[in-house]
Specification:
This protein is mainly α and 55 residues long. Helix content is 69%, strand content 0%. The longest helix has 20 residues.
Length: 55
């Protein structure tokens, strides 16, 4: 079992703003959704392999 990823309220707000910005720029909900899903998927990798991105 990996580490626990804790998203702060500010981080989640930033994800929402990123989503809105990408949607406004691309006019594509599919693209903006995919970007957010890709970011969230990357945290799963980090959760399971915490040493892949050292601090």
């Amino acid at each position: 079992m990996g580490k626990k990823i804790i998203w702060s309220r500010l981080s989640l707000e930033h994800l929402e703003k990123i989503h809105e910005f990408i949607y406004k720029e691309t006019h594509s909900l599919r693209i903006s959704d995919k970007l957010i899903h890709d970011i969230l998927d990357a945290t799963i990798v980090l959760k399971n392999q915490p040493n892949i991105y050292p601090i």
